[in-house]
Amino acid sequence: MKKNLLILISIVLIFSSFKKSNVDEQPDQRVDSVLRLMTIDEKIGQLVLYSSSWDITGSTIKEDYIDDIRKGKCGNIFNAHTVAFVSKLQKIAVEESRMKIPLLFGYDVIHGHKTIFPISLGESASWDMEAIEKGARVAAIESAASGLNWTFAPMCDISVEPRWGRVSEGAGEDPFLGSKIAEARVRGFQGTNNNLSDSLTILACVKHFAAYGAPQAGRDYNTVDMSKRVFLETYLPPYKAAIHAGAMSIMTSFNELDGVPSTGNKYLLTDLLRNELGFTGFVVTDYTSINEMVNHGVVANEDEAGLLAIKAGVDMDMQGEVYSKYLKKQVENGLVDVKLIDDAVRRVLRVKFMLGLFDDPYKYCNPTREKRLIYAPEHLNAALDVAKKSIVLLKNENQVLPLRKGEKIAVIGELADSKRDLLGSWKAAGDWKFMKSILDELKEYNGAQNVIYAEGCKKMGEDRSGFSKAMATARKASKIVLVIGEDAEWSGEAASRTNINIPGVQTELLKQLKTLNKPIILVLMNGRPLVLSKENELADAMLESWFPGTMGGKAITEVLFGEYNPSGKLTMTFPLNLGQVPIYYYAKNTGRPIYIENPKYKSRYIDSPNDPLFPFGYGLSYTTFKYSEIKLSSNELTDKGELKASVTVKNTGTYDGEEVVQCYVRDLVGSVTRPVKELKGFEKIALKAGESKTVTFTITPEMLAFHRLDMSYGTEPGDYKLFIGGNSRDVQEANFKLK
Ligand code: GLC
Q1: Sequence-separated (6 or more) residues with CB below 8 Å from residue 626
Q2: How do residues 244-277 score in pLDDT, each as one tens digit?
Q3: Counted domains in the chain
Q4: In a domain, 235, yes or no
Q5: Does residue 113 have a cis peptide bond before it, meaning omega lies within 30 degrees of 0?
Q6: Last residue of a domain, which of 522, 548, 580?
Q7: How much distance in Å is there from the Cα of 58 to the middle of ligand 1?
Q8: Which residue range(s) make up the domain with 727?
């Protein structure tokens, strides 16, 4: 009794002393003063993360997690939110457990918490880092207001695999753009100065480390096997950027890499992550990914899996109950040095101190703030702004768009009147009942009498019974707006597809509507690149709207009627057919590139062109832009110098608009083969009709570094091409030498 009293007094003294000290002044000293009071069970408890039963994002749930919180055997919770529920659980931790250590509360706030932004792949198509940061900022504010202090985002997995449903959560195929977006999202979540003690910032979690976006055959959780050079050049950069932006947690991926599951991969989690990249936060696994190493076949049982994970560098076990079951015994049997446990606990406690949770465990639990901030008007406006900027105009034959206010339009398709699908996958706590569908917004904007609707067919299935009504409806209108695509849950986790066409009979309906000889505008809702060759032939205009979020209906309406001139650009290549996949712009030239005469013995298909339907960086506008020749400050770049490349872009159309000016380079000769293009810069500019602007990119030798034949990272002198244009295909060209 006396001993416990003494401990209680020391805990109160330790915690109360923190109020005066600046949280960031002596993190380790404070952490150690708590650590030394903890039993081995309490230490292991800090390495345990359980889901509440509020939301299911994996295959198992532990019902008695509340009792574990009370006993100090669970120090972290996810899938629990709202101030009421978080306060209840936090109270148990800080008032009923012995050590009174506050809980972390995590959630998958991927593209919004309540106010939902476009899915991340959609947001990335805005190429607008401010807009993307704003989306993460609003997500942080609303989730923090709901009691959360940790999000399992940004997802930084590069991918060239449209069959993989999780491309919807990422930033597309390019490492340079993906890195910029990862940084923007970390800034949004953690605040521009990574001020985690601010009660409106939340802990970011870089995921899924590593190379989860390259599953063979696009099948989720499947084997990932790539050269170390491809991993370092293409897949690592966004994780690295997010870490250097200050992210303080990272999540291991389900996949193996080079034969070793990430969750037991000491090269990834210690040698690379900590020793090379200098990561100082903590490592959490993905959902039961420690347990799954038994299935991978690198351990015989969960006991061994726990051993492999803790020695590889995993700090926290998400939902696996492996650390809670086996770690203590492994320490007692001398299989695990308690120092490993202490280091892991130290990293977790340090983040809890940085978040200010020891100073005030209820700092995220303010019900008044929750009411005021959730769905705040400025958040909805931000979601509308980002949704508009994410929409990509893929086709606009004969300027059929924008629509004219008051003209009679037929709106067809189940998705046109769906609110739920607008939110996409990983919709966190987003509601949709109060939202307006695309149809609602079109009626409101254009007058209900000018908008007639027929469902036509479902977003999936073979039922054609609605076709005739759709045809009859379309006959009464001057233009047809057909909304087709995927169900919101057909992308995201565990949602791989073996074909990436428009599902069901939606395209058949398009074909029938085409016989009416009226302009058809396709609005696409999808979470991945699709094969749109047929649709592209049949439609007069095509808008890629992704899953545009809470304000998506309004965003699509404002773009259709020209209130906003679409400015989005694809961040993943859209193939002509599935047989081309994987297809991406930074391909190698090969020994037999097709762009030479005598096409037989060349790298080609006998049944398809090589080129995709829509290339990386592609997107149209209601106006047109003309690019001048590239002007170089010099044709030589010295190893300490820099080279300026400028173009003048003119808006040659009749609409004000925005253009994403993109800059690529090609290293013509390297000690290893080099991509035919690599994105090295971009700038989104606004131009009034008739206006011109000069855009200048600065090229430095560091930007041209790569992993050379001996795997050393650096540059090689030689000839380069430089390209500037509005996508990765239609570019101006110039040459320079790196001395
Ligand atoms: C899921 C996902 C991961 C998510 C986690 C928690 O399995 O792979 O992205 O953050 O579990 O929900």
Answers
A1: 649, 650, 652
A2: 999 999 999 999 999 999 999 999 999 999 999 9
A3: 3
A4: no
A5: no
A6: 580
A7: 7
A8: 625-738
